[in-house]
Amino acid sequence: GAGVSQSPRYKVAKRGQDVALRCDPISGHVSLFWYQQALGQGPEFLTYFQNEAQLDKSGLPSDRFFAERPEGSVSTLKIQRTQQEDSAVYLCASSLVAGQETQYFGPGTRLLVL
Amino acid sequence: GQQLNQSPQSMFIQEGEDVSMNCTSSSIFNTWLWYKQDPGEGPVLLIALYKAGELTSNGRLTAQFGITRKDSFLNISASIPSDVGIYFCAGQLGYSGAGSYQLTFGKGTKLSVIP
C-alpha cells in the first residue's frame, strides 16, 4: 500500500527490556513525526525529523527514548530499559514537506510493558 | 504535555441526529484540524482549517476555525452507524521553524450511534 506502515503492530516487553519500533513513511515524504498515545488520551508529540535531521525532540519524555532516521526515509524509535508507564500506542506520521502539509498517520505500534 | 480542551468526552445519539463537538485552547493556533480514529488504527484527517473565521464542509461534516484562533467546532449532520469512533481536534502553529509543525491534540470525543 501507499500509506504509512509501522512494525511491529503489537509488542509485549518485560520491564527493563529494550524495544525498537519501526516506521516506513509514505515514499518521498520529507517530514516524519512520532507521537505517543496513552489509553483514553489524544496523541502527544515526541519528535520530528526533516529528512535525516532530527529538528525537534522536545517531546521525548526521558533520555531512555531515542529516535533516528539515518537515510531520511525509515525511522526507528528506541526505548531503553522500558518501564510500565511506557505502555502506550506509538504513532508515526509523515508529510510531504513541512509546515501546514497534511500529516498522514500509520496504524501505530501498541506497546505493553509488564 | 499540553492537550486541548475537547467536549463532550462522549456522546450517545440516535441514527439521523446531528452532532456537535468543540475544542478550545489557551493559546493561539494557525491551523485547526479534525481527525477520526477507529479502534486499532491511526487518526485519519477529516477537515483542515487554515484561516480564522473559516467555515469548511466535507460531505456531512462542517467545521469552523474560531475568530480568536483559540477554538474550533465540528458538526456532523444526519449521523449514520459508520460515524462511530473517536474524534480528535488538533492545533498546529505552522508558521516557521521545526517547533511549530507538531500537532497538539485534544483528548477526544467518543461517538456512539444507536441504530
Characterize the structure shown.
The complex is a heterodimer of chains A (114) and B (115). Chain A is mostly beta strands and 114 residues long. Chain A contains no helices and eleven strands. In chain A, the strands form two sheets. In chain A, strands 2, 4, 5, 6, 9, 10 and 11 form a seven-stranded mixed beta sheet that branches. In chain A, strands 1-3-8-7 form a four-stranded antiparallel beta sheet, with no helix packed on it. Chain A is globular, with a radius of gyration of 13 Å. The termini of chain A are far apart. Chain B has strands at residues 5-7, 10-14, 19-24, 31-37, 44-49, 55-58, 61-65, 71-76, 85-92, 104-105, 109-114. Chain B is mostly beta strands. Chain B starts with a strand and ends with a strand. In chain B, strands 2, 4, 5, 9, 10 and 11 form a six-stranded mixed beta sheet that branches. Chain B has a five-stranded antiparallel beta sheet with strand order 1-3-8-7-6, with no helix packed on it. Chain B has no helices and eleven strands. Chain A binds chain B through residues 4, 31, 33, 35, 40-45, 48, 50, 55-56, 58-59, 91, 93, 98-100, 102-108, and chain B through 1, 3-4, 6, 30-31, 35, 40-45, 48, 50, 88, 90, 92, 94, 96, 98-108.
Features:
heterodimer, A: 114 residues, mainly beta, seven-stranded mixed β-sheet, four-stranded antiparallel β-sheet, 48% strand, B: 115 residues, six-stranded mixed β-sheet, five-stranded antiparallel β-sheet, 11 strands, 0% helix, 50% strand
C-alpha Rg of chain B (nearest Å): 14 Å
Number of helices of chain B: 0
Overall 3D shape of chain A: globular
Largest sheet, strands/sense/barrel of chain B: 6 strands, mixed
Query: Main beta sheet of chain A: strand number and arrangement?
Result: 7 strands, mixed
Query: Which pair of chains has the greatest number of interface residues, and how are they split between the two chains?
Result: A-B, 28 and 31 residues
State the helicity of chain B in percent bands: under 10%
Structural class of chain A: mainly beta
Total number of helices of chain A? 0
Number of strands of chain A: 11
